[in-house]
Amino acid sequence: MRRVWWFTATSRTKARFVRTFFGSFWLGLSNLFSIAILAIVYGTVFKVQDFNTYVVYLGLGLVVWNSIAAAIGSAPNLFEHNHAHVHNTNLNPVFYTLEEWAFQLQTFVQSFLLVILALSFFQHDLLLNLLLFGWLPILNFLLFLYWLPVCVCLLGARYRDLYQLVPIVLQLAFLLSPILYKKESLGAMVWTADLNPLYRILSPIRHSLMAGEIQLEPSLLLLALNLFGVWLSLRFINREGPNLPFLI
Prior knowledge:
Elements: H1 2-16, H2 25-45, H3 51-73, H4 78-81, H5 83-88, H6 94-119, H7 126-133, H8 135-158, H9 161-176, H10 191-194, H11 197-211, H12 216-240, H13 244-247
Helix pairs in contact: 1-6, 2-3, 2-6, 3-6, 3-8, 3-9, 3-11, 6-8, 7-11, 8-11, 8-12
C-alpha cells in the first residue's frame, strides 16, 4: 500500500496548487516572505548586532516550526476528514496517518530546500552542513512528525476538546520557544525551552546546520525516544482502530 498512500499524498500536493504559476514553490516562497518580514522587524526590536546570523537562526527555526505546527494542527480532525472512507472501506486506519505524514513530509521538503538555498546567501556552508551533519536531526524530526500527530488524531477522535485546545497550545508553544529570540534571552525561564518537546526537535536541526556538528548523545537519545513513540503510536492505532467508525 506504500505506493497508494504516497500517490494520494502527492495528488493532494498537486491539487493544492492547481492553476498557479509557481505551483509548489509557493510553499517555500511563503516561508521566505515571513522570514524576511520577521527578520527585519525583530532584528530591529532586539537590536541584533549580526544580522546575517540572525536571519539564518530565525529562518531555520521558522521553517521547521511551521512544519511541526501544520502536522499537529491538522491532526485532531484527520479521521473526521476521512470519515466516508473509514465508514465505507476496510482500510487499516494506519493508511490515513501515513498518507497525512507523506503529505506533510512533501510539504516540508519542498519548503525547506528552497529556504536553505535562500539562506545560503547569508551562510554559505548551510547546504554542506545539511548533507554532513543534518541527517540525524532530520531523521528525528521526521519520526516525530509521524508519531505525535498520530497520538493527537486518535485522542481528537475521542475527545473533541482537542479541536479547540491544540491551536491554543501551539500558539503558546511558539511564543515560549526560542525561535524569534535566543534561548539565553529567557533568563530564569530557560528551563521552559529544555522541557519543550517541540523545541527539543527543532533545536538540533538548527544547531547542526549553523554550527556544522552533531550533538551525538542527545540526538541518539532522542532517536530512541522517537522509535519508542512510533511503536507506541502504532499500538495505539491498532487498539483504537475498531472503535473509529463509532467515534466520527
